[in-house]
Amino acid sequence: MAILLVNDDGIYAPGLYALAKALRDKYEVVIVAPDREQSAVGHAITLAEPLRIYEIHQDGSFYGYAVSGTPADCVKLAIRVILDRPPDLLISGINQGANVGASLIYSGTVSAATEGTMLMIPSIAVSLDTHRSDANFDDAAQIAVQIAEKVMKFGLPGGVFLNVNVPNLPMSSIKGFKITRQATTYFDDFFERRIDPQGRTYYWMSGTMVEVDRGEDSDLMALKHGYVSITPVKYDLTARQFISTIESWFSAE
Question: Is residue 200 packed enough to be buried (19+ CB in 10 Å), middle (13-18) or exposed (0-12)?
């Protein structure tokens, strides 16, 4: 079984390393990741600049391929250029920080899984609910392996991938798995005005996530209660329930 690993935190991210370490004894693992952090780039792809691929070595041996592009670029290059055949599974992560609610729109981690799904590769996005610099990804990696093996055994429907969020708890304190929906949230952004050393104005974005609907069946609440959240996600954005309503606008004329 061949597994493609991608992320948005960059080729040297500890979450990616922990995931590769957890998988390599049992599976053929190929890493194709951005050469620098690409968090919150969404599903951006590179059109106006060349893409470069670099071989990365760690601890005296080959580790993976770094790409001068976005997470979606990494998936495209992996499938179309680097690999001789499609992988059996794609895992994106392990991201540092949860991807719940509105974060799914912005997340490069989620977008890599979306791109894999678009290319008909069973895909999983995995995130750990912490931004601490001393985050321990090893337990999250073991959970990711468990979910990956379920996907490889049972498969996923076409156009669907799994968005997985792991609470920042030791394995013994995690209560189990919950199959969830995406919470309804939005970001209340503000821009701090600053002056650089040359006297020029620039802005630094910050803000908080506002929880609109965080029902007990949501990804957000599963994390808060100590469960691993598994949300099946579709990349088809069509609001089918509204099609007939819009049709009525025009048929009434």
Answer: exposed
